[in-house]
Amino acid sequence: MKKKYVIGGAVVLAAVIYLLYLSFGSSVSYYVTVSEFYDRSAELTDTNIRVAGKIADMPVNWDAGELELEFTITEGGKNMPVVYKGTQPAGFKPDSNLLVEGKYGTDRVFHATQLILKCPSKYESIELE
Amino acid sequence: MIEAGRIALIIALPVAVFSAVAAVAGARAVSDRLYKGARNGILVVFGLYTLALILILYAFFTQDFSVRIVAEHTSRDLPALYTLSALYADKAGSMFLWGWVISLFSALLALQARSNSRSAVSYAVAILAVTEIFYISLVVFGANMFASSSPPPADGFGLNPLLQNVGMLVHPPLLYIGFAGFAIVFALVVGALIARVPGTRDSGLVRRWAIFAWCTLGIGNIMGMWWSYNELGWGGYWAWDPVENAGLMPWLLGTAFLHSMATRGQKNYLQVWSYYLIVFTFVFTLMSPFITHGGIESPLHGFYGSAFPPYLLAAMIVVIIGAVWLAYIRRRDLKKEKRPASLVSREGVFLLTSIVLVVLVFVIFIGTVLPRIVEGLGGAKIALDRSFFDKTCGPIMLLLVFLMGVCPLFGWGKAVWRSAGRNIIFYFLAVIVVCGAILISGVGNWYIAVVVLCGFPLFVIIREWWRNAAARANSKGVSCLGAFLSMLNHNRARYGGFLAHIGIVLVALGVIVSSFYSVEIITTLDIGESMNAGKYKLTYNELVFKQDNVKVSAVADMQVFRNGRSLGTMRPSYDYWFSHEDFFAEVAVRTTVVEDLFVSLVWTGFDPANKGATFRVLVNPLIVWIWVGGGFFLMGGVLSFSFREEDRTGRKNK
User: Within a 10 A sphere around the Cβ of B534, how many other Cβ atoms?
Assistant: First the structure.
């Protein structure tokens, strides 16, 4: 009786771990801040990463025709130019915390595929997404 | 005046302590008087808590900006309807309301359980009293719930526009009600184990509370999805964000618990398994605020700077250790548990279902906390994107859909295919053959195969209903519809379960089809220009500016055509809110049974001379079936909830 449960449990566990293992590799990305990125830029260039920083108080270029957004994020005294194909999310303004997801190219510009904006803490509101 | 609320809660603390002590003493001494004292204590706590709630609500509705949370979350022009959401838009306020629901349910339980299995309920009352002490302490000592803002501002800061939505009005309270309901179930099951009263888990009292909590929590999650879809403007409803997972995991565990108590009146059936399921359901109701209050960093939103997570983490650890210790000292009682004779039987499928649900929660949990754990262990900071969840949870959820279809095919007890089952196996083989043919021939991709698989449980359930109703109609000489209704009426728990399954399968269909066949187009148009999205053509006719006290709106006038025929006008808007100094989009959705046309105005320059605007347009197939599925789920929950004791005890091998 005991044996049955042990074997059953082992099979389930093995299956789950295999499933996790399969999915993990392609979904995981490094998560760094702007200054951390520049410390390891050689290693992280051209790989899928997430970079956290604040939107810098610098000109934001929004090309409505091309749907292209150009701006700069900053953290730890370092600035990173970002290009994003898409529109500004709500709350997109200088000093907001932003996560950009994508790749830093050899052209020394970060090509974002996704922007995730964190609400400025002054709202203090729930925003259950 | 608001200070009185704080004082009421502080007075409630010693009363709750008294209740806890009296309840335990009453149970040990089998003393009626002590139990009555504990009961009255619970009622007094509820009264004091309600007084505090009334004072807070009074401050909200009279817009008393001298109270901190009123000033922070409301403003003079906030619609009265959303004044209530302002209470739980606050991190302390949300905990406060949740604690009140627990005190309400504890009072209800104390009133319900006058006599039956007294000592088990006595311990349950003690556990709930301790839970109340925890919540009240959090609100009173861990947060500035009753703080005043001096000098009072002339106007409040205002409620976040994203929260001014009906979905967000009901989503958090439904979650709190569901969580609090599971706290009652947890207290009763643990109380029964302490008091060594076997069979409490299977009593009508526990079942009804469990079904109630499960149904409310399920609907609460669906309302959250509805809000996300209709308010946030990204065109989706689920992003596997930690905050979303926080609401889903307790519901999945609660579902596993419900399935683990599907017995045929056998005492002690699978009691260890279902004991741990309810313990962890309760733990995950604490995990939920732990995550939303910032214990696990959400890449999206949540409460910031909350002081609660360490206390919640401590509470979770205490509950787990306490529960394991209790199981250890009661191991003799737990050893008597009965198990299904065979996995190839109806109870076997119930057990498998609950195991698969636990595996699912495990995977979601890993995905939610792993990045933090890796970081905590000194590893690299990593992030998992949603594809991780899609790839791991997708197959597990399909397995659940499959089990829903298989379940009615088996009889209780031994491994027998019922006659219906033997026939239906051919249908099932047909499903496999059709899916295989679709995949191999390349006519469709595997999404089609998945949809066919979802049809399987629907087919089995409807066929089952049809057979039973027809047989009943024949033998009683009534109409088929009459027979069907009386069948529902006579076995409400079972047919409620079927209805809920239909609901879940419809949700699954909506989710799968809309995820894979959604069309998204983002483009910038000038006045008079058109765009195509799927079979639709949208013409951007005009942009109208409107202003009121709270915002400036740019409302686009989009005429929608399909096959050259005009379907009317859609008016998405892009609003600038003065209080938040920010832009928020108000989406326009046109829903049909086949697909939704979702239009969001995502950018415009607010320039009367240049009215160019950027639109995000999505054609989302079958979305409406997610909400319809929610309706079926609710009906199923209500029907199951109204079960009668004799339905169960009088049931033979149905």
Answer: 17
pLDDT tens for B415-451 read 566 666 666 677 778 777 877 777 777 666 667 777 8
CA-nearest of B530, B584, B596, B518 to B557 is B530
Cβ–Cβ < 8 Å for B574, B553 = yes
Q: What is the pLDDT of residues B92-104, one digit of tens each?
A: 999 999 999 999 9
Residues of B in contact with A116 (CB under 8 A): 299-300
The secondary structure of B384-448, three-state, reads ECHHHHHHHHHHHHHHHHHHHHHHHHECCCCCCECHHHHHHHHHHHHHHHHHHHHHHHCCCCHHH
Chain A residues whose CB is inside 8 A of the B603 CB are: 62, 64, 87-88
CATH numeric code, A32-119: 2.40.50.140
Question: In this predicted structure, which of B72-76, B341-345, B403-407 has the lowest mean pLDDT?
Answer: B341-345
Q: Which of residues 522-581 of B touch A (CB under 8 A)?
A: 522-524, 580-581
Element (H, E) at B222: helix B204-231
pLDDT of residue B327: 96
pTM (predicted TM-score): 0.93
Q: Do A28 and B616 touch (CB under 8 A)?
A: no
CA angle B240-B503-B205, nearest 5°?
95
Q: Do B580 and A123 touch (CB under 8 A)?
A: yes
Please tell me the least confidently modeled range out of B292-296, B423-427, B627-631. Answer: B423-427
Q: Is A32 on the interface with B (CB under 8 A)?
A: yes
Task: Mark yes or no for CB contact A27/B384 under 8 Å.
Answer: yes
Question: Which of A32, A62, A129 minimises the CB distance to B244?
Answer: A129
